[in-house]
Design brief:
- The chain is of the alpha/beta class.
- It has helices at residues 26-36, 53-60, 73-85, 99-105, 124-131, and strands at residues 43-47, 64-69, 93-95, 110-115, 134-145, 156-163, 166-172.
- The chain has a seven-stranded mixed β-sheet with strand order 3-2-1-4-5-7-6, with helices on both faces.
- Helix 5 links the parallel strand 4 (110-115) and strand 5.
């Protein structure tokens, strides 16, 4: 897997070596960042981060105050390995915990939130709660199984893109 663009563009990262993860394809990651446009100087949350590919891509493209969260041991190990190989240790605030636990203590708002939850253990309430920490005019991107009902959230949907059995849904807080 490679970082697509920016100051780390072309650099290789690894995926967690475990069956419970579903690494997002480069095509889907590219679609997210193409849709977002210039993210320089924007705060960014990578919820359910897995390898950290989304967070590393955001850093590479100029996002700031980046937080990545994942409770999986295998994802944590992949993130740490990637962080070291990219030589950006401590530039992304990585939380080794569940998104649900983190939300109970978080006090920050984010300009951009990308959520790519494990498809087999999706918590609809967590997705809804993530939208409450979006900054004004912020964008929330949800990666979701195309054949499952999308969780209801209280912000405006602005775009959908289908990639095989996966769906990207973009929302914006008005």
């Amino acid at each position: 897997m490679k970082i697509i663009s920016g100051k780390l563009g072309g650099r290789t990262i690894i995926s967690p070596d475990h069956r419970t993860t579903h690494p997002m394809s480069q095509k889907m990651r590219g679609a997210i960042f193409s849709s977002l446009g210039d993210i320089t100087g924007l705060s960014f949350l990578d919820a359910f981060s897995g390898s950290g590919a989304i967070a590393f891509e955001a850093y590479s493209r100029g996002a700031i105050n980046i937080t990545a969260i994942d409770k999986s041991y295998y994802s944590q190990q992949a993130f740490i390995t990637n962080e070291k190989s990219l030589n950006i240790k401590k530039l992304i605030d990585f939380k080794k915990m569940s998104v649900e636990s983190w939300l109970k203590t978080n006090q920050y708002k984010f300009d951009i939130i990308v959520a790519d939850p494990p498809y087999d253990k999706v918590n609809y309430q967590t997705i809804s709660l993530l939208t409450t920490i979006l900054a004004q005019k912020g964008v929330f991107v949800l990666s979701w199984p195309a054949k499952q009902t999308i969780p209801e959230v209280n912000i405006k949907e602005i775009k959908r893109k289908i990639f095989g059995d996966s769906l990207l849904v973009f929302y914006q807080l008005q």
